[in-house]
Amino acid sequence: MNAEMKISAFAPVNLESAEYRVTTYYHTLEMDEPLEAALEPEYWTHVARILRPGNEIRIDAADYSFCALLKVRSTSRISATVDVIWSKSFKDHVGPEVDNVTGFEIKWRGPKAKFGIIRVSDGEVVRDGYDTREIAADALREYLKAL
Asked: Mean of the pLDDT values across residues 63-71?
């Protein structure tokens, strides 16, 4: 350490509980809605009045394929400017043998039914309830072996 550098302790009033100082909100994007949509100030029009600079917003994709943490930088009555602190994409790799299977598709069916295997010819749900596309792809492989 530099001998000329003087370090002084900061005042205790500058240290606060994060739970007291930072309000964190949670938002789930609609299916196929990109994170970039949430970065537009007008996206937050209906909730801008409750947001404050310094707030954080945790974001999840509807199918949990990605998540992010946003920081509110500024607000107005009808908009909020946010920036990405971090984001993480969880790309499922189902393999070309599943992606190119004719007659079946893996589709997100909502938060309760989750990912499902759909027979394209009649739209019938073969099975659903899989947490990820990858798990559904494994189930489709097993289903095709059994046929």
From this structure: 92
